Predict the structure.
Amino acid sequence: MAQYIYELEMKVRDYECDFQGIVNNANYQHYLEHTRHEFLASLGVSITALHAEGVDPVVARISIAFKTPLKSGDAFLSRLYMKKEGIKYVFYQDIFRKSDGKVAIKATVETVCVVNGRLSGSELFDRIFAPYLQ
């Protein structure tokens, strides 16, 4: 069973839904990214400040399995845990509908770090993520 290291509660907004009344698939990527950014913020790291220093964590690959659709007004929990593979940080992110705990999506997000325009390892991320790597 996954050992989640971070959880963020959010709520579906009307404009995120398609004509079927469910969250449009592309919006799940926004939820996943927002969760990762908030995780970094909880560790005292600002994405904006990193970019100003020439450090950009970027998504290299993403895979999403859609399980149960979310609808407008649904509260949900976005949870993550992570591993390191070479220079990649792999985030395993799951979203659960809060009302009944059903899995909405399961995602794997592979990220890499670009420093001053070049693919690179990151001492900062190695240090701050060390306690959380599985």
User: Anything to note?
Assistant: The chain has three helices and six strands.
